[in-house]
Amino acid sequence: MNIKLDNLNKTIVNCKKCPRLVKFIKKVSTEKRKQNINEIYWGKPVPGFGNLESKLAIIGLAPAAHGGTRTGRAFTGDKSGDFLFKCLHEVGISNSPISKNINDNLKLKSTYITNILKCVPPADKPLQKELNNCSNFFNDEILLLKNLKVIMTLGKVSFDNCFKIYKKKFKSNEKFSFKHGKVYPLPDNKFLIACYHPSPRNVNTKIISAQMMINLLNKVKKIAKI
Prior knowledge:
The chain has about 230 residues and is of the alpha/beta class. The protein has helices at about 5-15, 20-30, 70, 80-90, 130-145, 155-170, 200-205, 210-225; strands at about 50, 55-60, 110-115, 150-155, 185, 190-195. It has a 6-stranded mixed β-sheet, sandwiched between helices.
């Protein structure tokens, strides 16, 4: 792993800037879920993972309480991750359709996966000050991905906060509205793409389907030239 990225990830894992999130992570990791009662939870902020030479970054909102917070890897060990990695495997981005734990030998093709917020928030609703605290970590990840061409955001909150970072950085007055599949050019020659979050609720209510995700990922691959 690149030394700069390794140091950033260590800083993320050791971060305690948000007392509310630190307290909630401890609660989740102590009380656990019935089916995971015998597991030792990761119980810390969750850094991103993937190839530093990646052309694509997939951005979620935050780790799941019993997914990334348990396993230590974003979108790993929860239903949203199950859906996402099945689709990533279908289009040839992931070597496996299953993402269970950090020792499962999963590898991504030219793709980096992370979250805007590195800690799970109560009720999946982060406070703005918590998002602000974490924004520098996300910005550093983007800067370290020197070959990055496309940022694909999962869900409106992720999309809005990613755009907010760019708006602040480039002093842009352009308005970006969240719409599934919409492609926005960014001032640094990257593209921002909106995608519905693959949450169980969105999947069950057919807001997003596997075919919709696969179609968008194939579009993303062409833009990123993966």
